[in-house]
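Human:
If only I could read backbone structure tokens as easily as an amino acid sequence. I am handing you a single protein, as its sequence and its fold in token form. I hope you can help me see how the letters and the tokens relate. Thank you; the sequence and its tokens follow:
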Amino acid sequence: MLDRISEFDTYLLLLINGFNSPFWDKVMLLFTARLPWLPLYAIILGYIIHRYAIKDGKTWYAVSVILAIIATFALTDIGSSFIKDLTERLRPGHDPSISHLVRLLDGKGGMYGFVSSHAANVFGLATITSLVFRKKAYSIFIFLWAFIVSYSRIYVGRHYLTDVLCGALLGIIIAAVIYRLLMIMFNNKKKRKR
């Protein structure tokens, strides 16, 4: 069973990685890089400060949301690194059975790739901010962005599909737990004020 999944995973990697053009190479390299997304993070941070601290006067809530987002990033990074070290699944560029078939647009990366830290990070951010903001248009945008970033990791040859899917699942779970803890904290705070 695992062999069939692995074969299918390799097939999909080579299909996505091989479906390329100079235009899409540039687009996917942009999406896979972390630096170009700093303005998006700054906009999210600015929205939290404006909406909750300035407009609603809930500075403590704004700070708590920001800390929850930071915790989500930290835990998705720690969790994905732990799983990588535990499973030791080679990235495509380090796997001698297929490395000669993979186009590496962004280098080989670290030795191990299961689970994708990029996917865990972006889906964690998408989940926690969607739960906090509760805006349909924002949720569609941020999850589409997370999907494209995750897809780009396969396109550039850094990850298999299962690396990305499991990374996304890890990010969603961690963000949902942190959001739940945030809501418990604020519900308890409201009860104490009564």
